[in-house]
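[agent] plan:
  1. take the single chain provided in the ticket
  2. run structure prediction with default settings
  3. attach structure tokens to the ticket
  4. add a short note for the reviewer (M.T.)
[agent] executing step 1
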Amino acid sequence: MKGRLSAALVSLIVLNSCTSMKPIDFKDSTPALVIEEYFAGETRAWGLFEDRFGRLRRQFTVDITGTWDGNELVLDERFLYSDGETDRRVWKIRKAGPHTYEGRADDVVGVANGEAYGNVLNWSYAMDLKVGDGTMRVRFNDWMFLQPSGVLLNRARVSKLGFEIGEVTLAFVKPGAGEAIAPESLTEWPAAYAPMKAASR
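[agent] step 2 finished; step 3 output follows
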């Protein structure tokens, strides 16, 4: 019985590894995502975090300024959460090869590894995530999908010790392209989310 269970477990692992998504699967997908071009200048993003049970825990906006000098892409990200908290992260990203990137930030452990094909970029990295007055080390499996409209959709699965603890969803929009969707300034959380802000206090 034990042998059968072990064989079944191995088969399940092999099946999952064979069916797991890879960036190269999207090599013929368009439009092409070139992050040093897409993130140059100003970008806005709207996001949310759900726990592993699918419960919405936080919503936030991000105002991003990107600069590319031909060798390094610097992304200055400023976060505004629905409870009024603010945060900042500065990414420094280098193109390591025709389809690969390396990224660093203060709260990223070591180097973030990215792989891009077609309209897709996949990031993998560990991060010391702020939790209350401390931090918790987690891993991100981060997928970005560029849409024909110019909207960049981002889904990141967050895990700790191999167990998924939540998922982050983001939509990036270049100025002008998103005016019809959300014209509000990021200096103030949109009034539509005021009930959530009050509830989170």
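[agent] step 4 note for reviewer: Residues 28-200 form a domain with the Lipocalin fold (CATH 2.40.128.20).
[agent] ticket updated
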